[in-house]
Design brief:
One of its GO terms (molecular function) is actin binding. The protein has 438 residues and is mainly beta. The protein is built from 2 helices and 35 strands. It has a domain of 33 residues. Strand 21 and strand 22 form a beta hairpin.
Length: 438
Amino acid sequence: MPPSIPLSRRNVPRDQAITVANSWLDLTSIQDPRRVSKFRHLKGTPAHKSFHIENIRNLSRQISGECDGFHANPERVAVPLSGPGGKIAIFELSKTGRLPDGVIPALVHGNNIMDFAWDPFDNHRLAVACDDGIIKLWKIPESGLNEPTNEAENEFNAHPDKIYFIKFHPTAKDVLASGSYDMTIKIWDLATLTEKIVLKGHTDQMFSFAWSPCGVFCSTVSKDGKIRIYKPRANDAPTREGKGPVGSRGARIIWALDGNFIVVMGFDKVSERQIMVFKSTDLNNPLNTVGLDVSPAILIPFYDEDSSTLFLTGKGDSTIYAFEITEESPYICPLSHHRCNNLHQGLSFLPKNVCDVSNVEFAKALRLTNNTIEPLSFTVPRIKTELFQDDLFPPTRVMWKSSLTSAEWFNGKDKAPPRISLKPDGMDLRKFSFRIFK
């Protein structure tokens, strides 16, 4: 006999009580055979205007298609500005409100910016790649950037040609990958500013690069329509190749489900934006392909591994699409999409430890519009929000602290990040009781 919900649900009809039990308790013994996501009805909520940064001016529209164009960390954001000199403005999230008129303090590079990224383990460090092949490392003062500066903490000649992308390693400190028009990917030890590994095998433009969650592998998707997986410390050639999107307008690639799957966002022959999911051990046969819409904007992804939720949006879009990536068919399950009141120029998600789990917030982002930066919260509706929703918040990987030094990683060591509970002190766990229908 199926269990029921006692007390407050006692007068609810039996069929409805079972539905409630399915929805809230996720009990496998009484689940509908059709899979229903716990995150299906996720809700996006913009923060109050008092938390916005306003009067942002002169946003650059000329950033390379391989660059996401906007990056945030828990303390500050980096925004490219238009005009000569390759400028990136740095805004402190603690200093909300209207920016004063006049010159916006910025990092001045002297050359066009190709890509930039925050160090995941240091909220004060920004890496920037320029079209002259130079990578600059900037140290942002504790109080923020108060005036324009062209003096980087360090810089080095990374490539003889323009750089497509730079990506920090997910678990090892001071490890950075850079891909260039010279068709190589170089992996750098920033502790010594030395080139350690050079990956080869590309014959055409690289659209996107992603480290696997464990940091052992990396993957790319390119204009030649191929997906490549590397094991960089073992071989400079791809260990696996497969066929990706056929369109040549651009693409993105990410890993999902503990690195067992790869998801690629691209275009088909008629410019429809598509999502393709592959088993990482078989890149020749997509498990599913979902068409989204016709748009020139490349879909930029963010993947929350705890909920297996994939968020997607493009520059100039007003909708943030959400899907759950699953290990079984159909592999790509649509969730509630969030529609914004106006267009955005970028979206950047923050680490899991900044989420307000007491309000069932499982993802938090910053949204860049034409003249504002706005926090955006993603929550899941629950009845008893005063209780810790342990089914929505499993122990999360500590991705904001490094597990290894660069020397350890280049010497072949691997170490998985620890997992911690996000339950706030003093917050009770959910408790349920059952009775048997008679």
